[in-house]
Amino acid sequence: MEQAKSVLLKCEALSVGYTSSSLEKPIVKEANLQLKPGMFTTLVGINGSGKSTLLRSLAGLQKPFSGSVILNDIPLNKLSPDARSKCISVVLTGQQISKNLSVLELVALGRQPYTNWLGKLSAHDKTHIDQAIASTQLEALQHTPCYALSDGQFQRALIARALAQDTPIIMLDEPTTHLDLHHKASIFTLLSEIAHKHHKTVLCTTHDIELVLSLCDEMIVIQNEKAQQNTPQQLIADGVFNQLFPSNSIGFDQNSRRFFIK
Amino acid sequence: MVLLLFLANIALGSVKIPIEAIFDIFFDPANVKEAWKYIILDYRIPKALAAVMTGSGLAVAGLMMQTLFKNPLAGPFVLGISSGASLGVAFFILGGSALGLTAMLAPNGWGTILAASLGSFAVLSIVILVAARVRDAMALLIIGLMFGSLTSAVVSILAYFSPAEDLQRYMFWSFGSLGDISWPALGILSVCYVIGILLALSITKSLNSLLLGDHYAQTLGVSLKKSRFIILIATSILAGSLTAFVGPIAFVGLAVPHLIRQWFTASNHWVLMPACILGGAVLMLFCDIIAQMPWFEFTLPINAITSLIGAPIVIWLLVRKKKLLF
């Protein structure tokens, strides 16, 4: 894969949340964050803290209440859907994906932004598809329909689809839920490879904090409606993880880098 | 296959006409009985053309609805198109006679067509208006179903107060009929059909993206609002005009896309779309041949035939595959 163009995504004073009976309920307020190329950033926080909401807003899938998401000095909402699709690709959970698609068809859909109105794949598109399938080790499964895949395989196919889209930024929403430790580790390793080798911006929400501490370059921690961004080392030193969970039920041991039940 | 069935469709019917005579009509018209010529040119050929358009148009509309709603139960009529048309026709036939309007407005079949078009258009514009406010495709589906219930309730009330002969006329319309179509009507229908099919083809790439769900489709550069609007318009033009001209034809729109998907084991709409056009035409011609079997004295209602054939096929598919994926 060629080197991705350097694209910087940042947000300024971004407030996001959900609307219930036309009342805006912000869950993350005034977030100032920066996603840099070549960096593997993870987004963590307890259930319902707004990880997915923040991720969706950064990807331009959800309107923020206030503040703006800026991609290389251009506000994201000023970009056409077409231009956006060439900058940001996503891996989401709980989408209604047609499981009749084969792995190859699923990955090939990642090339949609580059094809003409007939959706015909060029040789260049096919190279990208093959590379995406190869780097997620799905060669043997490419003609398997998605309903026959295991959770881990399906997740890898979704990541391959995002890779085939060949965007400088990839955002993933809890790509490791329901996976065993081995598959979690292999996905996080893959993501850090993608960021470092191909100089891409990778943002990933997760609950597997202990696992990603040593793999990611930066972390965004959402806590009490605030989002802070720093290196894992600094966050540990600041004792952020010790207070991550409410009512002090769970503590964090700085030496072993593990959570423990108090 | 389509051509063969098309020929068979023209050749078979309650009046027996030898196949040579059919060719003679085109190549040596002087040789052929006037009555045969009339039957073939003004009845069977328009009917066969109507069957082709009905089958393929409804199948394409059904395919688009199933992909848009990500629901294997969706069909061309989930948006309340057929119920709207029924309502229009019910008002026209059942309500109109009470006011003495029917005779005045309908010197020929055009009144029913107009009423059906107006009815389906009215219900559809309400559904589309609501669709603009509701973002959830599933809610839209349920709203369409609710409109269906509402209109059938109104139709029942109208029917309750209507004389028997009006009721019979309404029933005949609801059976669906490919045969009552004249050449000018066919002309209008084909214009609608071509517009609908072209719109459907223009949106095929987006339909492929929609297979991944709305969010993914958006990140692939699909403008959800725009493509949803085009899909709704294309479906309404196809299903609305077809219902207006041939009546509410059940099942083709729901069953054909499933059959095609299982047959080709494909999800790519560039495969499914042409396959649905051909498959829908084949099924409809076949149903119509059965409806007008040579050894019958009469022609059976087409709507009964499509369901009689369609329902077992879908049940068989379900039992065999155990699940129906959209």
UniProtKB/TrEMBL annotation, chain A:
Organism annotation: Leeuwenhoekiella palythoae
Membrane topology term: Peripheral membrane protein
Domain of life: Bacteria
Pfam families in the cross-refs: ABC_tran
Gene3D superfamilies, alphabetized: P-loop containing nucleotide triphosphate hydrolases (3.40.50.300)
Cellular compartments annotated: Cell membrane
GO cellular component, one term: plasma membrane
InterPro entries (alphabetical): AAA+_ATPase, ABC_transporter-like_ATP-bd, P-loop_NTPase, Siderophore_ABC-ATPase
PROSITE patterns registered for this protein in UniProt: ABC_TRANSPORTER_2
The protein, known as: Iron complex transport system ATP-binding protein
PANTHER family named in the record: IRON(3+)-HYDROXAMATE IMPORT ATP-BINDING PROTEIN FHUC, PETROBACTIN IMPORT ATP-BINDING PROTEIN YCLP
Gene Ontology MF annotations: ATP binding; ATP hydrolysis activity
Chief place where the protein resides: membrane
Domain ABC transporter stretches: 9-249
Keyword terms of this UniProt record: ATP-binding, Cell membrane, Ion transport, Iron, Iron transport, Membrane, Nucleotide-binding, Transport
TM region(s), chain numbering: none
GO BP annotations listed: iron ion transport
TrEMBL record, chain B:
Subcellular location, record wording: Cell membrane
Keyword Membrane recorded: yes
Highest taxon, organism lineage: Bacteria
GO MF annotation terms: transmembrane transporter activity
The keyword Lipid metabolism belongs to this UniProt entry's keyword annotation: no
Gene3D superfamilies: ABC transporter involved in vitamin B12 uptake, BtuC
GO BP, one annotated term: siderophore-iron import into cell
One Pfam family it belongs to: FecCD
InterPro entries: ABC_BtuC-like, ABC_transptr_permease_BtuC
Transmembrane segments annotated in the record for this chain: 45-65, 77-104, 110-132, 139-161, 181-201, 229-251, 271-291, 298-319
Protein keywords: Cell membrane, Membrane, Transmembrane, Transmembrane helix, Transport
GO cellular component, as recorded: plasma membrane
Stretches assigned to coiled coil: none
Membrane topology note: Multi-pass membrane protein
Family: Belongs to the binding-protein-dependent transport system permease family. FecCD subfamily.
Protein name: Iron complex transport system permease protein
Organism: Leeuwenhoekiella palythoae
Biological classification of the source: Bacteria, Pseudomonadati, Bacteroidota, Flavobacteriia, Flavobacteriales
